[in-house]
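I hope you will forgive my troubling you with a question about protein structure. The matter concerns a single protein, recorded as an amino acid sequence and a row of backbone structure tokens. Please examine both parts with care and let me know of anything in them that strikes you as inconsistent. Thank you for your consideration; the sequence and its tokens are set out here:
***
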Amino acid sequence: MPDWLEAAIRTLTAIVILFFLTKMLGKRQVSQLSVFEYMTGITIGSLAAYVSINLSTPWYLGLVSLVVWVSFSYGMEFAQMKSKRVRAFVEGKATVLIQQGHVLEANMRKERLTTDELLQELRRNGVFRLADAEFALMETSGEINVMTAAEGRPPTRRDFGMHTGMKREPIAVLMDGVVMEEQLASIRLNRGWLDHELAQRSLAAEDVFLAQLDADGELYIDLYRDATES
């Protein structure tokens, strides 16, 4: 049999077998992946490629490895369904990023999440003002869910059906203890204004994790609060 024909047959065989094995693993394997599922996806892809083009070794050895790996992955998923301890060991635990309106910087560092990424995830959840985020949790899948503090906010013009007009988005003017000079200039403010606002609160720039100015001119400040982190 010509090498090209053998490679073609091996590839088609690997595709068919891999399709049915992946179907057996369920939908989670192709949606939100845990660390183990991510590792499984990479490995079975490599094994499928091995079966397809490595003509120097018997093809069935690669298929045996493929079946063993997928079977082990299936067994791990079954064990996770039955045991919370196994699930916690394999997938880890959710991480609190914002608690009672305060950003937990140590937990962000543990998850290697930057301030810009946090703000992006808040916006993805429809929260454009950090002050509106009461609680934020990073799930084991890496997805971030946010609970807003709507109940604690006073009624707004929008609540009464009054037209509010278009407003610009809140702007971060101080991030990770560093003043954002360009951001201040874009809204026609300067470092002197920010220093005055901080001085009124007896704060220095290095004390602030994130400061955000909304369209109403309200400055929301989140301090480094390592003592409250867990």
